[in-house]
Amino acid sequence: MTIHPTAQVDAGAELADGVEVGAWSIVGPRVKLAEGVRVASHVVIQQDTTVGAGTTIHPFCVMGGDPQHGGYKGEPVALEIGANCTIREHSTFNRGTPGDRKLTSIGDGCLFMTGAHVGHDAVVGSHVTFANNATLGGHTRVGDRVFLGGLCAVHQFGRVGQGAIVGGLSAVTRDVIPYGSAWGNHVRLHGLNLIGLKRKGYGKVEVRRLLAAYRDIFEAPGLFSERLHAAEAAYADLPEIQEIIAFIREDTRRPVALPDE
Fold first, then answer.
1. pTM metric for this prediction
2. Which of 28, 96, 125, 138 is catalytic?
3. pLDDT > 70: percent of the chain
């Protein structure tokens, strides 16, 4: 364990073997840093935050800050950050609120580029990439292996399904389906995340079938509800399509991003 003499570490914090805390950083009460966590200089980890093994937090980040919520009155709420994440300069992650999960959670292996923000009660999966200044509002849900482009913003309570990509400068006021490719102000669906699918190991035949199912759901004639029902039966053997259909049906109060008409 290496703690710079100018750093402040609360007596109630728990630091595992191999943790580094740089100059002028502050580690507050009830903070738990797992083995090999590296906290650079000028970082504030306010309180009630758990950081997984091997995660690196770069200068001028604020982790575990109070939720930016007018109803918060100091209740016990928390932030959890997974293992092997890289959190670049000026990123900010808020703790949860009593009105929701009381917890903001981040998965493993995520990359947060400069200025990323994760709002209160957000749930972020594993291997997610936030480009510079990508922002999550409160109560948002982001699946595994999502890429959020620079300066995009996901509206509070918004959902981005796993494997999706969101373009830079996008206002995500509608939910983005799993494996979807969406961009624009305000965000519209522009197909599937083909690069992400190929990187995951999908072959040409699999991609063609997924594209055919996408067209049947989003581009064929008829009522959208009827197209969903037909695709559910026609592509029963494609778990990705079943996941997309379940995502759309999961919360009927939330509008889903659709292609341009």
1. 0.97
2. 138
3. 100
